[in-house]
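User: Hi! I'm working on a homework problem where we have to compare a predicted structure to a textbook description. Could you give me the structure for the chain below?
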Amino acid sequence: MNKLDQLKSMTQVVADTGDIDAIGQYQPQDATTNPSLLLKAADTARYQPLIDAAQRWGREQGGGPGAMAAAACDYLAVSVGLEILESVPGRVSTEVDARLSFDRDATIARARRLVDLYEKRGGSRERVLIKIASTWEGIQAARELERDGIHCNLTLLFSFVQAAAAAEAGVYLISPFVGRILDWHLKASGVDSIPPDKDPGVESVTQIYNYYKRHGYDTVVMGASFRNTGQIEWLAGCDRLTISPALMQQLAADESRLERRLRPEHKADVPSRMSLDKKSFRWLLNEDAMATEKLAEGIRLFARDQEKLEARLVA
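Assistant: Happy to help. Predicted structure tokens:
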């Protein structure tokens, strides 16, 4: 078997794309989307009918330009999600507007609106994960949504404290960003590369995975944001990995043996089980310069792409 097939035998592979053709080619279990991927998809001819339908929906909802644009974006996200669900056996992740990352109640309201759109159009909430930034407010919003049977994917996760808080909140799944952690350390250290076995992003996901398994958390660990196949290979065995089509293609072209690195029964030394309140969460996150910077940067970048997508839909 090639490395992609070997990986699928030990880890659920998730497509990090909104490209339906790529999803059909590589046959992942799940797929994830975000405003950046939707913006890219919006410029292709294949998605023009979905764009047209979203624009009509936005106009029908009324309100000012901002409200219509937000409604159109949500409708497009659900439209792409429904198309993806026809190509994968599992779930699709759909993201809440990143500009709501510090507003618990608004995040909850937007998540419920997305799920309501899915269900009114024939989708099932059991096959949808709502993506929310891993701020304190986002984690608390996810806690409430999980109680209502709306499963969440905590994204833009860069630190152990974010992962610990998400697990305590009973979140269905987290997405630690491997590549962006590496990016920060490369820039900070002034080196051109770090080998996968010493990659700080790989080490972060490994620590989180071992902590969850040691303490019996059900929250799924899904490594994300990969820069190379070496990072993926050193996380083989993780619950899930979300991978771009380009990196899936590289794995599919490699026929060499893939070794499993992570196992739930591995008894690694891990921190004691943590219980965090708002003050301790914010302090510990503040103490992690990389996580603080990358979380803020990630929210800004997703927000800018959300704004560009809205402008595209009201043009």
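For your comparison, note the following. The mean pLDDT is 95. The first helix runs from residue 3 to 8. Good luck with the assignment!
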